[in-house]
Amino acid sequence: MYLADYHVHSSCSPDGHVTMADMARTGIGRGLSEICFTDHVEPILLGSGALRDHYDWAALAAEYAAARKEEQIRRDNLASITMEKVGQYVREGKTVIVTVSADWCLTCRFNDIMVFENPAIKQKIQNRGVVMLNVDWTVSNSETAEFMKKFGRSGLPFYVLFSPLVPDGMVLPEILSEQELKLLIDNMSLFRPNS
């Protein structure tokens, strides 16, 4: 949970320059499940200078620091898509699907909702041991652009499947279907579940 004072005009607040909508968008984008906006989160009792004792400030600070650390790890992973990383998984016999999307990409969001967040697809991915490498290109970076350029692409959405059967990758359509992705995973994966 990220606790923030809704009085974002306060220059002493770390959120002093950010709107509530931007804070909510950022929190959700970082995977936080709760965002609490309050009226006057004051660290001291007015008029006394004493710290409030009914807020667990240490726990709140630790929770926020942990969320920031997790987000940085996630961003580092998302930004570090390389052929070396993909190749390592393929050499291990795994199928890899790289997705490159952005918050502003409506087709990306459509595919997320209709395909990648579909319970049947999630189960298929898990059963086949498929590695999903999801790259967030909301803020573009040269590393991701270079990765996409290797496949003759520069726009979103961008999906590419790798496996020992297609180690150099196979670019997938921009608009995906559940059935199509299931067939691709079944036909391109070496790992076969017992059931």
**CATH top level of the largest domain?**
Alpha Beta
Order of strands, widest sheet: 4-3-5-6
In the CATH scheme, what's the topology name of the largest domain?
A: Glutaredoxin
Q: Which value, in Å, is the CA radius of gyration?
A: 22 Å
Bin the strand percentage: 15-25%
Mean pLDDT equals: 79
Structural class: alpha/beta
Can you say what the CATH homologous superfamily of the largest domain is? Glutaredoxin
Count of DSSP-assigned helices: 7
> Which ranges are low-confidence, i.e. pLDDT below 50, for 5 or more consecutive residues?
9-13
What is the number of E strands? 6
Q: Could you say how many structural domains there are in total?
A: 2
Helix content: 40-55%
Which CATH architecture of the largest domain is right?
3-Layer(aba) Sandwich
Series of H and E elements: EHEHHEHHEHEEH
Distance from first to last alpha carbon: 40 Å
User: What summary fits the major beta sheet?
Assistant: 4 strands, mixed
Specify the overall morphology: elongated
Please give a quick description of this structure:
The chain has helices spanning 20-29, 57-79, 83-91, 106-116, 119-127, 142-149, 178-188; strands spanning 2-5, 35-38, 96-101, 131-136, 158-163, 166-171. The protein has 195 residues and is an alpha/beta fold.
Textual characterization of the structure:
With 195 residues, the protein is of the alpha/beta class. It has two domains: 2-76, no CATH class; 80-188, 3-Layer(aba) Sandwich (Glutaredoxin), CATH 3.40.30. 42% of the residues lie in helices and 16% in strands. It has seven helices and six strands. It has helices spanning 20-29, 57-79, 83-91, 106-116, 119-127, 142-149, 178-188, and strands at 2-5, 35-38, 96-101, 131-136, 158-163, 166-171. A four-stranded mixed β-sheet has the order 4-3-5-6. The chain has a two-stranded parallel sheet with strand order 1-2. The longest helix has 23 residues, at 57-79. The radius of gyration is 22 Å and the shape is elongated. The two termini are 40 Å apart. The model is unreliable at 9-13 (pLDDT under 50).
